[in-house]
Structure to design on (244 residues):
């Protein structure tokens, strides 16, 4: 199942456009984080077309945290910092690559769109399992929010309109198992006394690798167990107060 979330949108018309694109491409679950007021007589409903009957009025107001706990989350961004040293927005997939990877797994995924001007903030993108960017002109890669959602959902249509999934699609570990694995990696970083300044970055890097890999429940459990044991073997760092 694929859901859509919009974080911090200011313009009701964009929310309406997104609801319409969702209905056009066979999606129905819309989540709004910190939404603008959606007046039934206003632009959101005006722009929503037939989605004014269902997708838009059924939208659920929620928090980003609730979404990351429940879904495999995919953040969208125009600005990608194409550089492996900074991995808040890198590596990223194109929408078509995302479709190809989701075809092979059974998962509940949420595509997350950002604010009109600043998009998703770095600390919001940091908690996403994956990042997607629509390839566009280097000179001006920033699409309008509603149009960006339309392009992404168009690219995913094989999964949503046609409901096509690979016959041998694997069961992906659910989000709580993935979160448990990520937490265990965090505990290992602590146990090996990984430098404070690098822990957050290392944790994010791990989350993204796991996010793109779509581990099965068994893979997630096995890796988690290994990380836990590794942490138990870690030698605590010597402290000054220790006897010599
Ligand atoms: N500087 C912001 C631009 C915000 S545009 C950024 O880097 O994302 C508003 C929203 O539209 C974004 O949060 C994203 O959800 C979507 N969007 C705009 N252009 C996009 C693109 N080229 N690829 C993917 N999403 C895009």
């Amino acid at each position: 199942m694929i859901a859509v979330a919009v974080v911090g949108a200011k313009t009701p018309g964009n929310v309406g456009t997104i609801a319409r694109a969702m209905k056009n491409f066979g999606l129905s679950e819309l989540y709004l984080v910190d939404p603008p007021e959606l007046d039934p007589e206003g632009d959101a409903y005006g722009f929503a077309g037939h989605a004014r009957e269902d997708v838009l009025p059924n939208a659920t107001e929620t928090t980003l945290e609730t979404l990351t706990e429940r879904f495999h989350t995919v953040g969208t961004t125009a600005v990608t910092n194409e550089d492996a040293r900074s991995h808040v927005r890198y590596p990223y997939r194109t929408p078509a690559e995302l479709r190809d990877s989701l075809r092979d797994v059974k998962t509940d995924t949420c595509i997350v769109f950002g604010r009109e001007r600043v998009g998703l903030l770095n600390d919001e993108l940091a908690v996403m399992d994956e990042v997607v960017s629509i390839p566009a002109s280097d000179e001006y890669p920033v699409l309008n929010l509603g149009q960006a959602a339309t392009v992404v959902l168009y690219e995913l249509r094989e999964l949503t309109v046609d409901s096509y999934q690979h016959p041998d699609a694997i069961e992906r570990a659910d989000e709580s198992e993935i979160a448990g694995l990520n937490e265990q990696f965090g505990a290992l970083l602590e146990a090996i006394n990984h430098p404070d300044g690098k822990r957050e970055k290392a944790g994010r890097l791990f989350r993204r690798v796991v996010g793109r890999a779509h581990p099965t429940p068994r893979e997630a459990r096995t890796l988690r167990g290994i990380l836990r044991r590794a942490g138990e073997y870690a030698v605590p760092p010597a402290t000054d107060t220790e006897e010599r």
About this structure: Residues 107 and 220 are 14 Å apart (CA to CA). The mean pLDDT is 93. The beta strands are 2-7, 30-33, 60-61, 72-76, 105-106, 109-113, 130-132, 170-171. The pocket of S-adenosyl-L-homocysteine is lined by residues 76-79, 113-114, 116, 118-120, 133-134, 136, 141-143, 145, 148 (CB under 6 Å).
